[in-house]
From TrEMBL:
Gene3D superfamilies: dinb family like domain. Transmembrane segments: none annotated. Residues 13-153 form the Mycothiol-dependent maleylpyruvate isomerase metal-binding domain. This is Mycothiol-dependent maleylpyruvate isomerase metal-binding domain-containing protein. The lineage of its organism: unclassified sequences, metagenomes, ecological metagenomes. It holds the Pfam family MDMPI_N.
């Protein structure tokens, strides 16, 4: 993908998220959604795919530590992805948008779109796991937007399909994670009908 394609894919994923949030019923924010999260918590966690771009770009990194989107996840799994901490960050973000989730999501989607117009592809983002070029970090946020918007849509009963380019980017990262975590054979056998995947199978855990 070109840099422009990566940007457009991210923005399309953000629009997918905003469209699903727009359709959540006023009484639907407390329904169970994912693990410990209700729909509001999950929405808050997903909306961090906007806010982290704004915050990480504000303090540019000194050097590139992670070259590829998959490197972000492989590094994060080593410590940043502690389930309790992730759950708490989601709840905290849910409280940030409690008054008007739709307005907050739409507003920050626009803030990020405008911010991306100011940033070069090679702008170094100071992420919690190391410096990354903007254009390498964006696919990690597309990944989060696609997967968690699908979670949200399922939880609140919204029938909306993710954009194809965003889904393709997500599947690419999932395949790479499976490869580097030694789960690629299981994944290939399972999705081609050559062997059932075990209950709870995930390349993320």
């Amino acid at each position: 993908m070109s840099g422009q394609d990566i940007r457009e894919t991210y923005l399309e994923a953000g629009e997918f998220f905003a469209k699903v949030v727009d359709q959540v019923d006023i009484d639907g924010w407390e329904v169970p959604a994912l693990g410990e999260w209700c729909a509001r918590d999950l929405t808050g966690h997903t909306y961090r795919s906007f806010t982290t771009i704004l915050s990480y770009s504000a303090k540019p990194g000194d050097k590139v530590d992670l070259e590829r989107p998959v490197d972000y996840f492989l590094t994060a799994f080593e410590g940043l992805a502690d389930p309790k901490q992730v759950a708490e960050r989601g709840r905290a973000a849910g409280l940030e948008i409690i008054d008007d989730p739709r307005m907050m999501v739409r507003g920050f989607a626009m803030y990020v779109k405008n911010k991306l117009e100011e940033l070069a592809d090679d702008h170094i983002m100071a992420t919690p796991v190391g410096g990354m070029r903007l254009i390498d970090y964006l696919p990690t946020r597309t990944f989060e937007l696609i997967i968690h918007t699908m979670d949200l849509a399922k939880a609140v009963g919204v029938d909306d399909q993710p954009p194809e380019k965003g889904m393709a980017a997500t599947l690419e990262i999932l395949g790479q994670i499976a490869l580097y975590r030694g789960r690629a054979s299981d994944l290939v056998f399972g999705i081609t009908g050559r062997g059932g995947l075990s209950d709870g199978f995930s390349v993320l855990s």
